Amino acid sequence: VQDGYGDVAVRVFFFRERDHRCTPGKPQIECAAEHKKIYDKYDKGGAAMYYSTTCPSPIGTLTLAGSENGLAGLWIEGQKYFGHSISGEMIRKDNLEIFKTARDWLDRYFDGRRPSVKELPISPAGSGFRRDVWDLLCGIPYGTVTTYGAVARKLAVQMGRKSMSGQAVGGAVGHNPISILIPCHRVVGAD
Predict the structure, then answer these.
(1) DSSP labels, 104-164
(2) Pairing verdict, β 70-76 and 90-92
(3) Nearest by Cα to 66 from 111, 103, 40, 39
(4) 35 in the Ramachandran plot: left (φ > 0), alpha (ψ -120 to 50) or beta?
(5) In whole angstroms, what is the distance from residue 45 CA to residue 91 CA?
(6) Which of 23, 30, 150, 178 has a CA between 20 and 30 Å from the CA of residue 120?
(7) Bridge partners of residue 65, in order along the sequence
(8) What's the distance, CA 33 to chain centroid?
(9) Mean pLDDT computed over 177-183
(10) For strand 146-147 and strand 187-188, is the pairing parallel, antiparallel, or unpaired?
(11) Which pTM value belongs to this model?
(12) 55 catalytic residue (yes or no)
């Protein structure tokens, strides 16, 4: 599969076995055209090809992941849930524009300046609930902290509900795939 950058890579998709119309036992490589039809059926705007790079930082090596939709991941080496939100393999590609922009953002961040998360196109993979939580986190100002409960109350209002579980919010915060930019580090258990 050729991507928009002129590179050839393999995409991984999951499909139901009954949709596989190739001869049983036939090697996949021999029925690639048939597989492409099946994959395309499941790839209408959903699956993306992901690229990765690493960059040094004052807190350790960072791994960035991105697609044509924007930055999809930023993890600190050894971080829990490292890369969990990326389906399929990430192809190493250091010179993507999104990575250059993200490195510049990170350099300014670690220099003590306060770049806005709005400067970068971000595209974190997650459920609608998790994306709603991460959107709220992006609104937490520099130099402040909030609690899981406060985020849950804001989300409840936004969703037109009486209440929302602080634990559910905590789960979404803990699975944030874009560390630092989506400031999960500004959310604490209680005041």
Answers:
(1) HHHHHHHTT----GGGS-B-----HHHHHHHHHHTTSPTT--EEHHHHHHHHHHHHT-S--
(2) unpaired
(3) 103
(4) alpha
(5) 19
(6) 150
(7) 52, 73
(8) 30
(9) 92
(10) parallel
(11) 0.70
(12) no
Helix (H, G, I), strand (E, B) or coil at 28: helix
> Which H or E element spans position 179?
none
CA geometry: angle 10, 122, 87, nearest 5 deg: 30
Q: Dihedrals φ, ψ of 24, to 5°?
A: -55, 135
User: Looking at 22, 31, 55, 184, which residue is catalytic?
Assistant: 184
Nearest to 64 by CA among 88, 89, 83, 87: 83
**To which H or E segment does residue 67 belong?**
strand 62-67
Sign of the C-alpha dihedral computed for residues 89, 95, 100 and 101 taken in this order: negative
pLDDT tens sequence across 46-68: 456 889 999 999 999 999 999 87
pLDDT per residue as tens digits for the range 17-42:
333 344 444 444 444 444 444 344 33
